[in-house]
Specification:
The chain is an alpha/beta fold. 40% of the residues lie in helices and 10% in strands. It is globular.
Length: 378
């Protein structure tokens, strides 16, 4: 059995079992949609470009954070660099060539100076709104007051997407975490045209038995029960790109765990991967930042209306199940090889249309990575 066949066989088992153990989107107990962005939302090649384009036009983001929260923006800048473009400011000519471009046009709205974000670039107010640094700095309520002040200011009230991150303060009491959830619910009630993104706190090495795990679960349970959007920062730090799990081994925000560092190990096994391109990643490894950037754009596409379903539904019956998996296995030929399915009526064109997710005219393990994400077994 070749290395490709072994990985495919292992992946088929993972794809089948994943349908039982993972949920990233659906309806809450209250009947409201919940979108959970976690380690299963980093295969950016699976996201249709049209939905990312729509998100850049539709949303106007304000993101309040300190150093840990900057991992997302550092990863986005690195993603654009990998793709050969940059968008350092709204007047940067390179913005128009960046598929994942954003720029900060706060001064344009607040002071009438600077440049407005072009139509094909996400308007992204970084380190805003003013009045708080993150969800716990200078205290546990300032972020909410700052958000309300921004949304009530006629010059700044066009923000329709607001996100705040933690920087260590999620490891707190149940009462303090409930305060966060109540404040978020109040904002959702009072500004129904604005999407507020919940976020879990970064890992700190205390594992599944620690208080932080319970508080992060408190956030997850709230979103699942009441609806909303959750960017699961901690979950993204708990898995490598192959979905190997490390939180039970006391993983930390640096990607260390009992026995090693999962980011260093994965990149050593995958030299040359775009996920391992170096960047300044606060408190962590570049792989962590690069994964979070990809999860961010997955989230944006979902918010724009993408349902998370992809082209891998070969028989077009509304799910990706064992029938589709069987057909995929017939189409799998490897990099640079034309699919030659042995069983009519499946043709080479059928294979490429349904399973060539990255458009490189073959069906290989990169496409299987995407297939696993879409598999639901329904």
């Amino acid at each position: 059995m070749s290395a490709m066949q072994r990985r495919f066989a292992r992946g088929m088992w993972c794809a089948v079992t994943a349908t039982v153990i993972t949920v990233t989107t659906g309806l809450s107990a209250a009947g409201q949609e919940c979108i959970i962005i976690d380690h299963k939302c980093t295969k950016l090649q699976a996201v249709p470009v049209s939905w990312i384009d729509q998100a850049k036009t539709e949303f106007f983001l304000s993101y309040g954070h300190t150093s840990h929260g900057s991992q997302i923006t550092s990863g986005i800048a690195n993603l654009n660099s990998v793709l050969g473009c940059s968008c350092g400011s709204c007047s940067d000519a390179g913005c128009g060539t960046c598929q994942h471009a954003y720029c900060n046009d706060y001064n344009y709205y607040a002071h009438g100076s600077g440049t407005q974000a072009p139509p094909d670039v996400l308007s992204f107010w970084d380190y805003r709104p003013l009045g708080a640094s993150d969800l716990g700095n200078p205290n546990r309520t300032a972020w909410e007051a700052a958000t309300r002040a921004m949304l009530e200011d006629s010059d700044l009230s066009n923000r329709n997407l607001v996100m705040w991150s933690w920087c260590g303060q999620a490891d707190t009491t149940e009462e303090n975490m409930q305060l966060y959830l109540d404040l978020m619910s109040g904002l959702e009630d009072d500004y129904d045209e604005v999407t507020f993104v919940y976020m879990t706190g970064h890992l700190n090495g205390t594992g599944e038995e620690g208080n932080l795990f319970q508080r992060n679960n408190q956030i997850r349970d709230h979103v699942r029960a009441n609806g909303g959007v959750l960017f699961d920062f901690a979950d993204l730090e708990s898995y490598d790109p192959d979905w190997d799990y490390f939180r039970d081994l006391h993983a930390t925000d640096t990607c260390d765990y009992d026995g090693g560092n999962w980011a260093d190990e994965w990149c050593a096994e995958h030299p040359g991967s775009d996920l391992c391109v170096s960047c300044s990643c606060a408190h962590s490894r570049p792989l962590n930042c690069n994964l979070k950037a990809r999860a961010f754009w997955w989230m944006m596409a979902r918010l724009a209306g993408w349902e998370g379903t992809l082209q891998t539904d070969y028989d077009h019956d509304g799910d990706v199940d064992l029938v589709d998996l069987r057909t995929f296995s017939q189409c799998l030929a490897g990099p640079g090889a034309a699919p030659l399915p042995p069983t009519p009526p499946v043709t080479e064109a059928d294979c490429l249309q349904s399973f060539d997710t990255d458009g490189d005219l073959d069906v290989d393990l990169d496409d299987f990575d995407v297939f696993q994400v879409t598999f639901n077994g329904a």
